[in-house]
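Hi V.,

You were right to ask for the full record rather than a summary. Here it is.
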Amino acid sequence: MEKTNNKPYSILLYYCYAKIENAEAYREEHHLFCVQNNIRGRIIISDEGLNGTVSGLHEDCEKYMAYIHADPRFAKTEFKIDQHEKHAFAKIHCRYKPEIVHSSLRHLDPNVRTGKHLEPEEFKALKDQEDVVILDVRSNYEHELGHFKNALTLDIDNFRDFPEKVKELEHLKSKKVLTYCTGGIKCEKASAFLLEQGFEDVYQLHGGIIKYGMEAGGEDFEGKCYVFDNRIAVDVNSVNPTVVSKCHVCGTDCDRMVNCANPTCNDHLAICEKCGWELEGACSVECKENPEKRTYDGTGYYQKNSNGYNPFKGLYRTSTHEPHQHGEPTHS
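Predicted structure:
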């Protein structure tokens, strides 16, 4: 793995649709490997596959990728790799769930039928053609922060609402529909559902926005990309970047994403530096005055309370192995 800018950590984004027998037992094995190799992040394991974002030192991430690729079920897994100064997560959570992304489309298997995969340069070449519709399948707070130029966005709070919204797209069935999302996983089910509903010419951006930024310079992606780790938002476009989101409080151009400091609200919103400090990380005066408001440190990211956190929690077998520990790297 290539190291850049002397950043000692890697962040891996990946998914793989593959049948897993005894998925809950595999979740236990997978969790233990992460603990023993100082991998942190959020991983979902289900009968239909894997979905994760994790972080670790470069060498630990190499071991993790080798561990996944060594399993024939997941040999095709593609990792989007970014570099970072530190862990992007405080904990490791490896959970079993019915789906690797909550879609309400469990009957669809992307390994059987899904939209045609377009590599970033292919997507770039096709996206501006006259008979093409670029469809963002992400939630409101994601596409409001950033989206492709001229993309069609949907008013949805969760991906599970996507099937209902497709009813509004009937007039586009004769078009080439290019779907995209953060890393590609939502498009697997979204494009499969569009095909099931009678759309005939359906494509998906392979590797999503993240891969497009890495391999095609992010051209014509406007704003930033929301990510599900403590970075919250990342730059994508190094060719013609713009800011498309506005501060929720004052309306100025702003691509600084925060979670409201009021935990009962916790909305994902663009809030500028000035308003962030004035409202102490809250999205309104009402939220600022909430007695449960969290302490704002200028980032707008709030790690859940780690008191008493045990990385071995949820491991049912007794293991004689101790977790592999690393000291923090030192720099001159």
